[in-house]
Design a protein that fits this description.
Residues about 220-225 have low confidence and may be disordered. The radius of gyration is 20 Å and the shape is globular. The protein has two domains: about 5-160, 2-Layer Sandwich (Ribosomal Protein S5, domain 2), CATH 3.30.230.10; about 165-315, Alpha-Beta Plaits (2-Layer Sandwich). The protein has about 325 residues and is of the alpha+beta class. It starts with a strand and ends with a helix. It has helices at about 65-80, 100-115, 125-135, 175-190, 195-215, 230-240, 250-255, 255-270, 290-300, 315-320, and strands spanning about 5-20, 25-45, 50-55, 85-90, 145-150, 155, 165-170, 275, 285, 305-310. The strands form two sheets. Strands 1, 2, 3, 4, 5 and 6 form a six-stranded mixed beta sheet that branches. Strands 8-9-7-10 form a four-stranded antiparallel beta sheet.
């Protein structure tokens, strides 16, 4: 008997890159937000030993480089158990799209394997194993609106934002995150303007901007006053005003002009806030109106840009639907 888990995607609402750390990673600040697009991960455990990855998508690695494989290997070791594990990944999300697909797949595999084995890791072990496999895995153990710090693996649940209509457009370009970081470092060295202290100040400014945005009069930590629709639109307008952006745009857009053009198209379509997600190639637009989002998605699709209209996913919805297949 197999266990199926929905593997939801994420977007980044603002992403600031700080100084390079001694471990080779960069200090980051970002807000992760889960969205309603997903892959489906199925986990089966039978007698025997070994881990098998299966997928009909040729872009999915089927060996030990797959994040699901690496996660299953660690879980079996942590639980001191054995078995023949088969993980099947049904892909809908883009590969190297900046939506966290591989990371989300690995967390879905973790949750599915726990159910299949009828054993659970401690919350601390879940977070530790997730962070070992990748920087943005831990966010998928929380869902909804999540603050990411450190290299992105230190995650803190924020008060959930309202569910916004969202358009995801993914040009046919694969952007490597390590390459994007390398381009960022090269740009920084070439400019010779930013010091580590100034990078750190930029991270602090991001934190202040997030606080200003979420502490505005139109956002209630208790979620009580104001109509939901009015509150959502006001939050989007305040988001633009605070100027939260994605640092990767400064190195990805010059290298891949087609991605920059998609952002411009979404801005012209009436999106209230538009940004690159992660290092790309996906660009998203947040809308105040569902019909406007659908119209924008249709227009980009007509231009042969793979595009879908969806919505952001709150934490409660994330967990309610994770095992609903």
């Amino acid at each position: 008997m197999s266990t199926s888990v929905r593997s939801f995607a994420k977007i980044n609402i603002g992403l600031k890159i700080g100084p390079r750390r001694e471990d080779g990673f960069h200090e980051l600040r970002t807000i992760y937000q889960t969205i309603a697009l997903s892959d489906l991960v199925k986990v089966e455990v039978s007698r025997g030993v070994g881990i098998e990855i299966a997928s009909k998508d040729p872009r999915v690695p089927l060996d030990e480089t797959n994040t699901c494989y690496r996660m299953a290997e660690r879980i079996l070791h942590a639980l001191k158990t054995r078995g023949k594990v088969r993980i099947t990944i049904e892909k809908s999300l883009p590969v190297q799209g900046g939506l966290g697909a591989a990371s989300s797949n690995a967390v879905a595999a973790m949750l599915g394997l726990e159910r299949a084995l009828k054993r659970e890791l401690s919350p601390a072990d879940r977070l530790r194993l997730a962070a070992e496999v990748g920087s943005d895995l831990p966010l998928f153990l929380i869902g909804g609106t999540v603050l990411g710090v450190g290299r992105g693996e230190q995650v803190y649940p924020l008060q959930d934002l309202p569910s916004f209509p969202c358009v995801i457009a993914t040009p046919g370009v694969a952007v490597s995150t390590p390459a994007a970081f390398a381009d960022w470092d090269s740009k920084r060295v070439a400019s010779a303007k930013l010091t580590d202290a100034e990078d750190s100040d930029k991270l602090e400014l991001f934190s202040h901007s997030v606080f200003e945005w979420l502490s505005g009069s139109n956002y209630s930590p208790t979620g009580v006053p104001g109509k939901a629709g009015d509150r959502a639109e006001a939050l989007l307008l305040d988001l633009v005003r605070t100027g939260l952006g994605n640092d990767f745009e400064s190195v990805v857009f010059p290298k891949y002009p087609a991605i920059r053009e998609v952002k411009r198209a979404l801005e012209r379509s009436g999106a209230k806030y538009v940004s690159l997600s992660g290092s790309g190639s996906s660009v998203y637009g947040l809308f105040a109106d569902k019909d406007a989002a659908a119209k924008a998605a249709g227009a980009l699709t007509d231009q042969d840009v793979p595009t879908v209209a969806t919505r952001t996913l709150t934490r409660a919805e994330y967990w309610k639907t994770a095992f609903s297949t």
